[in-house]
Design a protein that fits this description.
The complex is a heterotrimer. Chain A is an alpha/beta fold. Chain A is 44% helix and 20% strand. By secondary structure, chain B is mainly alpha-helical. Chain B has helices at residues 7-28, 30-33, 46-70, 78-93, 96-102, 115-118, 125-154, 159-177, 183-186, 217-234, 237-247, 249-254, 259-285, 295-308, 313-328, 352-367, 378-382, 385-390; strands at residues 192-193, 203-204, 210-212, 287-288, 339-340, 343-344. By secondary structure, chain C is mainly alpha-helical. Helices cover 72% and strands 4% of the residues of chain C. Chain C has helices at residues 2-32, 39-56, 59-82, 90-112, 138-160, 162-172, 174-179, 184-209, 219-232, 237-256, 267-281; strands at 117-118, 128-131, 134-137, 212-213. In chain C, the strands form two sheets. A two-stranded antiparallel sheet of chain C has the order 1-4. The chains are: A alpha/beta, B mainly alpha, C mainly alpha. The interface between A and C is large, with 46 and 41 residues.
Chain lengths: 393, 391, 295
C-alpha cells in the first residue's frame, strides 16, 4: 500500500516537473524572437461564456497581426491563456501563472471581481494589466498597474437610467440583480442614483445565486407598475429572465447592461414580443471590415464558433478584446522594448482608435470614454439594431 | 495508545519546524545570494503563490480534521466560519484612508476605525504586525462565538444530519453577508479590498525596493503556530476525550466524558481556527467577498482532509500542498491545447484539468480510502514497525 | 389577486420539481442512509442529455432516451462509487458522493465548454395557458398531477410488489435482509434507477420552465430537495412530496414579498433555516419513523 502511494506521489511530482519544463521551452526555438501576452480570462465558471468571447477577439487579432515591430526588431506575439475560473480564489494563482510565464503584458479580465483579486499580483510583479470589460471603479483605483479600455459602471448606470427615463417616460423602474455580485449590485446602485435624481422611483430586488425561477420577480414588477425593468445580470440568468418574461407575456421594456449584449440572450429573445435594450461598447456594422473578418474567422473554426455560442453574431466584448490586443501592441511599440516595466510606462500614453472608438487613458488608468451604444433586440429576425448613441450627462 | 511525551521528541519537532521556516525564508530570498536563480525559485514563480495558498488551506483542513477526524463530528460549515473570519479581518483592517474608496456604494463605512491605524498605520511595523495580528485573533473569536451559538441547537444532531444542518448555517451566513442593507458594514455585494495582505510584510528599503521577502514566511508562521496549538490540544486530555467521543459516544459518556461540553468545545475551537484561516484567505486573495465561500469551498477542504487521511494532521498538510499544486499549478498544462510536432494532443482544452483532477480524487476516495497517511503522523513513519505492532 | 395566483402558480411549479428530485433522495436515504449529493448533478446531466439528444433526433425518441440513459448513469454511479464502500463508514460513502458530484460538474463544464445551454422547447409542455388571467405553461400544471400519480404508483410499488417488500426489508435491516435471501445489490440498484428516472422526468419539466442549463444548476435544487425530504421525514415518499411543495411555495412567497422589505435575498436561507428548525424540534420530520440507536 505504502509503495503504491509513494509511487503515485512520485508520478505526480514527475508530471509536475514535466509541466513546468514544458511551459518553458515553447516558442523559443528557431531563434525567433517572441513576446508573450497573457490572457487572464475565465474559461470556466459563471462568466466563462463572456470570457471566451472576449478571448476570441484577441485570438482573431493575433491571427490578423501575429508579429510586432519593437525597437526595429520583429517579434512574434504569443497569447498565453490562464483560466481564472470566474472565481476570486482561483484568480491569484492564475495571475501568478502568467507572471511566472514571463508575459510582457496582461489582457483581461471579463468580470471585475477576478481583476481585483488578481490585480495586486500583477502590481507586485511590475506587470501592466489592461482590463477589457471590467467596469467596476475599484479595479484601477489604487492599482498603478491596472488600466482598462472600457467605460465604468457609474457611466453605464447613468446612461441607462437617462435612456429609460427619456425613452419610456417611466416613473417606476424595477431593478433585479444577483445577490453578492458586485457587477449587478454596483450598476443597480448607480442606476438608482441617476434614476431617482431624474425624479423616478426605483424598486430593487436581488435573487440568490443559481436561482432559476424568476416568475415571482417578474410578476412583482408587473404588479408594482414598473415602467422599465433593469436587469444587469450575467448571461445565463439573462436568458432565463427573457424566456420567462415572454411566457408571462410581460410587455414592460427591459434594460440591460453590456453583459446582455450576447447572442445567447438574443437567441432567447428571438421570436418573442420582449422589448430589450442594452448598452454596449460596440455595434455590429460599426466597422464593416472588422465585422467581415471576425465572422469569417468564427465561421472557419469550429472551436471559435462553439466559443461564440454556435453562431456568428458579434458580441461587443469580442470587439473590445480585439481592441485591447492592438492597444497592447501600441504600448510595446511606444516602449520600444519587451520589458514589462517599459511597457507599463508607455501604456498610459497610448492613444489608439479601435473598432469600438477612441481609446486614451486618464491618470487613474481608466479609458476616457463618453459614448455608449444602446441597441435593441430585433426579435423578428434575431439581430441587434442600433437604437441610439448615448453620451454622459 | 498512550502518547509518550518525551521532551526530546518535542525539541526535535520544534527544531524541524524552525528549520522548515528558515528554508521558506531562504527560498523566498534566494535572489539575495545568487544571481542565477532557477526559474521555479524566482520570487515571481507559481511556487510561492501555491505555498501561500497551501498555508491558508492547510490550516482550514487541519481545523476541519480536528472536528471530523478527531472528534467524529461531521460538519460541513467550514466555509461559513471562514467567511466570518475573512469579513471580520477585512472590516477591521481597511485603512481609514481607503474606506471611502472601498465603501463607495454606501458613502463610507459604518466602522469608524481601523486596527492597523490605531497602532500607527499599515506602513509602520507596529501598526502592521499588531493591527493584523489583533484582527486575525478577533476573526477567530468572532467565528468561535458564532460557532457557540450555532452549536447549541446543531450539536445535538447526529452524523449526516449534523453535516446538512451546518451546511445550511453556512449558506444562511453567506446570504446575511451579501445583504445590501448591511452594506455600511459588510460592503454588500462589493468586495472589501485594499486590506493589508501578505505582500505588506515584505521589507522594503527607502526606495520602495524589496529587501527581504516575508510574504510566504508570514502565512506559514501563522499556520504553523495555529496547527501546533491544535496538535498540543489533541495530545492533551481534552484531545483524548475527543478521540473517545469519535470512537464511541455512548462508551465515552459512560467513562464520564461530558459529551455536550466536549463537542461544543471541539466545534468552537475548530471554528476559531477556521476563522483564522478565513482571515488568511482574505489576505491571500487580497479582498473579502462572500462569493467564494460556497459549499464548494467546504467540499474542497473536506476532500483535502480525506486525501490526507482522516485523523492525520501531517496528512492534511501534505495533502493540501499536493491538492493546491496539482489543481492550480502542475495540471494547468491540461487546459491548453498542445501540439507536439504535428500531433495535436487530443482532449486538451479548457476544463480538462478539472476533469482529470476530479478523476484522481475519485480514485483516492475509492481505492486509497485511508488517504495518504491514514491516521498516522509523519514522525510515525520514521519510527518503524514498533508502533504498528502496538496497534 | 392576479398577483397572488401567479405567485402560487410559481410556487406549485417549483415545489413539484423539487418533489420529483426529493423522491429520489428520500428513497436512497431510506435504504442506504446516504445523502446522495450527486443526485442534483444527475438531474443536471439529464438536462444536458435532453439538449444534446434532441439536437440529433426527434423529440419522441429523445425524451425516452434521456430517461433511459439517466437511469443507466445512476446505475453505473452506484456500482462504481457506492458499492465498493458498502462496508465502509457512512462518511466515506458521503465523501464519495461529493466526489461524484464534483466529477459530474467538471465533466459538464468540459463538455459544454462552460457555456450555458438552452433547453429545447417541447410542444405541448412549453405552450402557454391562461389561469384566472395569469399566463403560465402547461408544464406548470402538469407537474403536480404527475407528482401525485407517481406518488400513488410508488406507494403501490413499495407496499404491494415483491421488489417493494425487499426495499422495505433492506431499509429496516441490511444484514438480516441479506440473510433472508434478498439480493441487496439488486434492490439498491432498482432504488437508484427509480430515483434517477424521476430526476430525469423532473429535469424535463424543470428545464422546460427554466431553460438555461449550466454545470452547477443541479446543486441548489438538489440541496433543497434534500431539505424537503428531511422536512417530510426522510424515507417517506408522501412526506418528501409535501415537504417539497411547502418549500417551493414558501420560497416563491418570500421572493414575492414587497421589495421595500428587501428580504427576497433570504429565500434560500429560509429553506435552510426551516431545515435547522425541523431537525432540532422534530428530527424525524413530519411523517418520519422514529429511529433508535442500537448500542
Amino acid at each position: 500500500m505504502k509503495k503504491i502511494i509513494s509511487l503515485s506521489l512520485a508520478l505526480i511530482m514527475a508530471l509536475g516537473l514535466v509541466a513546468c519544463g514544458g511551459g518553458d521551452v515553447s516558442g523559443e526555438q528557431a531563434g525567433e524572437k517572441v513576446v508573450k501576452i497573457g490572457v487572464f480570462e475565465p474559461a470556466s465558471g459563471d462568466s466563462a461564456s463572456g470570457g471566451k468571447k472576449e478571448t476570441l477577439g484577441m485570438q482573431y487579432a493575433n491571427q490578423e497581426t501575429p508579429t510586432v515591430e519593437i525597437g526595429g526588431e520583429t517579434y512574434k506575439v504569443e497569447l498565453i491563456p490562464a483560466d481564472n475560473g470566474s472565481s476570486t480564489d482561483k484568480a491569484p494563482t492564475a495571475a501568478a501563472d502568467l507572471v511566472a510565464k514571463d508575459v510582457a503584458i496582461v489582457l483581461g479580465s471579463y468580470g471585475s471581481g477576478v481583476s481585483m483579486a488578481g490585480g495586486p499580483i500583477f502590481d507586485e510583479a511590475g506587470l501592466a494589466a489592461l482590463g477589457v470589460t471590467c467596469t467596476n471603479p475599484n479595479v484601477t483605483a489604487g492599482n498603478d498597474y491596472y488600466y482598462r479600455i472600457c467605460f465604468l459602471d457609474p457611466f453605464q448606470g447613468t446612461v441607462l437610467a437617462n435612456f429609460g427615463k427619456d425613452k419610456f417616460d417611466a416613473s417606476v423602474a424595477y431593478c433585479l440583480g444577483e445577490i453578492g455580485n458586485e457587477y449587478d449590485q454596483g450598476l443597480i446602485t448607480f442606476f438608482e442614483q441617476a434614476f431617482t435624481a431624474a425624479g423616478g422611483t426605483v424598486i430593487k430586488d436581488s435573487f440568490p445565486t443559481n436561482n432559476s425561477d424568476f416568475t415571482s420577480y417578474l410578476n412583482k414588477a408587473k404588479s408594482e407598475g414598473a415602467g422599465v425593468i433593469f436587469t444587469p445580470v450575467s448571461i445565463a440568468y439573462a436568458t432565463q429572465i427573457i424566456t420567462q418574461a415572454s411566457s408571462l407575456g410581460i410587455e414592460i421594456p427591459f434594460l440591460g447592461s453590456d453583459t446582455l449584449d450576447d447572442n445567447m440572450v438574443l437567441e432567447a429573445a428571438k421570436g418573442t414580443d420582449i422589448q430589450l435594450y442594452v448598452s454596449t461598447f460596440y455595434q455590429e456594422g460599426g466597422n464593416p471590415e472588422f465585422d467581415a473578418g471576425i465572422k469569417n474567422y468564427i465561421n472557419s473554426d469550429s472551436v471559435a464558433k462553439d466559443a461564440n455560442g454556435g453562431n456568428d453574431t458579434i458580441s461587443a466584448v469580442t470587439a473590445m478584446g480585439y481592441d485591447a490586443y492592438y492597444v497592447a501592441l501600441e504600448a510595446m511599440k511606444a516602449a520600444g522594448s519587451v520589458e514589462p516595466e517599459a511597457i507599463k510606462a508607455a501604456l498610459g500614453g497610448v492613444i489608439y482608435t479601435g473598432v469600438s472608438g477612441d481609446i486614451a487613458f486618464d491618470e487613474v488608468g481608466d479609458a476616457i470614454r463618453d459614448t455608449a451604444y444602446i441597441k435593441t433586440a430585433n426579435t423578428a429576425d434575431g439581430t441587434w439594431a442600433l437604437e441610439t448613441v448615448q453620451k454622459a450627462n | 495508545m498512550i502518547q509518550k511525551k518525551s521532551k526530546k521528541g518535542a525539541f526535535i519537532a520544534l527544531g524541524c519546524i524552525l528549520v522548515f521556516l528558515a528554508v521558506i525564508v531562504l527560498l523566498e530570498n534566494l535572489g539575495l545570494f545568487m544571481d542565477n536563480v532557477p526559474k521555479v525559485l524566482k520570487p515571481t514563480s507559481q511556487l510561492f503563490v501555491v505555498l501561500k495558498k497551501t498555508a491558508v488551506y492547510a490550516l482550514a483542513a487541519v481545523s476541519m480534521n480536528l472536528l471530523t477526524g478527531f472528534t467524529g463530528l461531521f460538519s460541513l460549515g467550514q466555509a461559513g466560519f471562514m467567511l466570518l473570519g475573512a469579513y471580520t479581518y477585512a472590516i477591521l483592517t481597511v485603512p481609514m484612508a481607503n474606506k471611502d474608496q472601498v465603501y463607495y456604494a454606501f458613502n463610507g463605512s459604518a466602522v469608524k476605525f481601523s486596527l492597523p491605524d490605531l497602532f500607527g498605520g499599515v506602513d509602520t511595523v507596529a501598526g502592521l504586525v499588531l493591527g493584523v495580528l489583533l484582527a486575525i485573533i478577533l476573526a477567530g473569536i468572532v467565528a468561535a462565538i458564532f460557532a457557540w451559538f450555532i452549536g447549541l441547537p446543531v450539536l445535538r444532531l447526529k452524523s449526516d444530519y449534523l453535516a446538512i444542518a451546518t451546511l445550511g448555517f453556512a449558506e444562511i451566513m453567506r446570504a446575511i453577508f451579501q445583504w445590501q442593507k448591511l452594506g455600511p458594514v459588510t460592503n454588500g455585494a462589493n468586495m472589501i479590498n485594499k486590506i493589508p495582505t501578505f505582500a505588506n510584510f515584505n521589507i522594503e528599503n527607502a526606495a520602495g525596493k524589496v529587501v527581504l521577502r516575508l510574504s510566504t514566511f508570514v502565512p506559514f508562521l501563522l499556520a504553523i503556530i495555529c496547527i501546533a496549538i491544535i496538535v498540543l490540544l489533541i495530545n492533551s486530555s481534552y484531545g483524548r476525550a475527543f478521540k473517545a467521543i469519535r470512537e464511541d459516544e455512548i462508551a465515552a459518556e459512560a467513562m464520564g466524558i461530558n459529551l455536550a461540553k466536549h463537542k461544543r468545545m471541539s466545534f468552537c475551537i475548530s471554528s476559531f481556527f477556521a476563522g483564522i484561516s478565513g482571515a488568511m484567505f482574505a489576505m491571500f486573495v487580497n479582498n473579502a467577498q462572500a462569493k467564494p465561500f460556497t459549499t464548494n469551498l467546504t467540499y474542497e477542504i473536506l476532500l483535502i482532509v480525506v486525501i490526507g487521511g482522516i485523523g492525520s494532521i501531517t496528512g492534511s498538510c501534505i495533502a493540501t500542498f499536493l491538492y493546491v499544486a496539482c489543481s492550480e499549478w502542475w495540471l494547468r498544462f491540461l487546459d491548453t491545447q498542445t501540439v507536439i510536432g504535428d500531433f495535436q494532443v487530443p482532449l486538451l482544452r479548457p476544463g480538462f484539468r478539472m476533469v482529470v483532477f476530479s478523476i484522481v480524487i475519485m480514485v483516492v476516495v475509492l481505492f486509497f480510502r485511508r488517504g495518504i497517511m491514514g491516521n498516522k503522523e509523519l514522525p510515525d513513519l520514521f519510527k518503524g514497525k514498533r508502533k504498528e505492532a502496538a496497534k | 389577486m392576479e398577483y397572488i395566483i401567479s405567485i402560487l402558480l410559481s410556487g406549485i411549479s417549483v415545489g413539484g420539481q423539487y418533489a420529483l428530485i426529493a423522491i429520489g433522495y428520500t428513497m436512497v436515504y431510506g435504504i442506504l442512509r446516504l445523502i446522495n449529493f450527486a443526485h442534483g448533478d444527475v438531474f443536471m446531466v439529464a438536462g444536458l442529455m435532453g439538449i444534446y439528444l434532441s439536437a440529433s433526433m426527434p423529440l419522441y425518441v429523445a425524451i425516452p432516451m434521456v430517461i433511459v440513459l439517466t437511469a443507466i448513469l445512476a446505475f453505473f454511479i452506484e456500482r462504481a462509487a457506492y458499492k465498493p464502500l458498502r462496508s465502509a463508514p457512512r462518511m466515506s460513502v458521503m465523501i464519495s458522493a461529493i466526489g461524484v458530484s464534483y466529477l459530474l460538474q467538471n465533466m459538464a463544464t468540459y463538455i459544454t465548454g462552460a457555456q450555458p445551454m438552452t433547453y429545447p422547447t417541447i410542444p405541448g409542455l412549453s405552450d402557454t395557458v391562461q389561469i384566472a388571467g395569469t399566463p403560465t405553461k402547461w408544464a406548470v400544471l402538469l407537474t403536480p398531477v404527475l407528482v401525485a400519480v407517481l406518488v400513488v404508483a410508488l406507494t403501490v410499488l413499495i407496499n404491494k410488489t415483491k421488489v417493494g417488500m425487499a426495499m422495505r426489508a433492506v431499509s429496516k435491516d441490511f444484514e438480516t435482509a441479506q440473510l433472508m435471501g434478498i439480493k441487496i445489490n439488486t434492490v439498491i440498484s432498482v432504488t437508484f434507477v427509480i430515483g434517477s428516472v424521476l430526476a430525469a422526468v423532473g429535469s424535463i419539466l424543470y428545464f422546460t420552465n427554466y431553460s438555461a442549463v449550466t454545470p452547477t444548476i443541479g446543486a441548489l435544487p438538489g440541496l433543497k430537495a434534500f431539505v424537503a425530504a428531511v422536512f417530510g421525514g426522510i424515507g417517506s415518499i408522501p412526506g418528501a412530496v409535501i415537504g417539497a411543495f411547502i418549500i417551493g411555495i414558501c420560497e416563491t412567497v418570500i421572493k414575492g414579498l414587497p421589495s421595500a422589505w428587501d428580504v427576497s435575498v433570504f429565500s434560500d436561507a429560509f429553506t435552510f433555516a426551516l431545515l435547522v428548525i425541523v431537525l432540532v424540534f422534530k428530527p424525524t420530520g413530519l411523517f418520519g419513523e422514529k429511529a433508535t440507536d442500537k448500542v
